[in-house]
């Protein structure tokens, strides 16, 4: 993720990353408990965990690392240009 975040936006990116981790940390244990209760075996709960890992892996396969780096570089270049513009008050 550090490769994708523009330098001036790193705090926002990592903050969102931390928030999303905390917001979804309940999902695995909750589904484990629900499926264990429904099927009366912990094997069903373990399958839920395996399926969540599979979903995560499939999502990661869609990430284009090169495009992410290029987008971060474009954003940084635009921010540098904006700072140097006359009348921007940032000189």
Number of strands: 0
Low-confidence stretches: none
Distance between the termini: 30 Å
Note the main sheet.
none
Number of domains: 1
How would you describe this protein?
The longest helix has 20 residues, at 42-61. By secondary structure, the chain is mainly alpha-helical. It is elongated and about 70 Å long. The two termini are 30 Å apart. The chain has helices spanning 10-24, 27-39, 42-61, 65-84. It has one domain (7-84). Helices cover 75% and strands 0% of the residues.
Key structural traits:
91 residues; mainly alpha; 4 helices; elongated
Summarize the structure.
The chain is mostly helical. The longest helix is centred in the middle third of the chain and has 20 residues. It is elongated.
Write the layout of secondary structure elements.
Elements: H1 10-24, H2 27-39, H3 42-61, H4 65-84
């Amino acid at each position: 993720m550090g490769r994708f975040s523009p330098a001036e936006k790193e705090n926002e990116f990592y903050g969102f990353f931390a928030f999303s981790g905390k917001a979804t940390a309940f999902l695995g244990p909750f589904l484990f408990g629900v499926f264990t209760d429904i099927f009366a075996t912990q094997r069903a709960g373990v399958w839920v965990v395996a399926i969540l890992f599979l979903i995560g892996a499939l999502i990661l396969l869609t990430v284009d690392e090169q495009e992410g780096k290029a987008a971060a570089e474009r954003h940084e270049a635009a921010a540098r240009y904006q700072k140097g513009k006359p009348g921007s008050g940032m000189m």
